[in-house]
Amino acid sequence: MLDTLYIDDVAQADALLKPKRVEILRRLAEPTTCTAIGGELGETPQAIYYHVKRLQAAGLVTLVDERRVRGIAEGIYQAVARSFWVSPDCVGRLGPERTREAMLGLGYLLNLTEEMSRDLAQLAMGNVVLPSFGIAGDVTLAPEDGAAFVAELQRAFGEVLTKYGGGEGHTFRLALACYPRTS
């Protein structure tokens, strides 16, 4: 089972993004049958089977075993991944492209998070052997300190990029985001 499946195909996303199918996928985190899921959800095995077959056709569920129950073959299914990320590319860009030059705008951060989501999900689908890490924290700034804070952060980040950028070896993506908390 994959840790993450990155979905960038509209047909796959369409098969996934139905409330009943999401609920069925949650129950398929471990191998189980349509009969067992139907019992948990108060649905007939046939109704669950219909959704499982649609998920299977989309490559989101796999048949892991079969067993005979009263002379009938009953499938045992499992989700192909522990989590599913749907790419923003499934919808596509609506309107003009966000510019990279506007580094102080939320549009740039949205571009950055879309790129990071795609990169991280693709890494999670493979066998990552190189280290990666994340760091996050909150700062509280008085209004008069905002510009100085941004300038200092840009300087320090630029120094790290200058010191370690352009050398030989493995390339790592380093991203820094600063945005106001809403909660």
TrEMBL record:
Full protein name: Helix-turn-helix domain-containing protein
This protein's source sits in the domain of life called: Bacteria
Q: Which InterPro entries match?
A: ArsR-like_HTH (IPR011991), WH-like_DNA-bd_sf (IPR036388), WH_DNA-bd_sf (IPR036390)
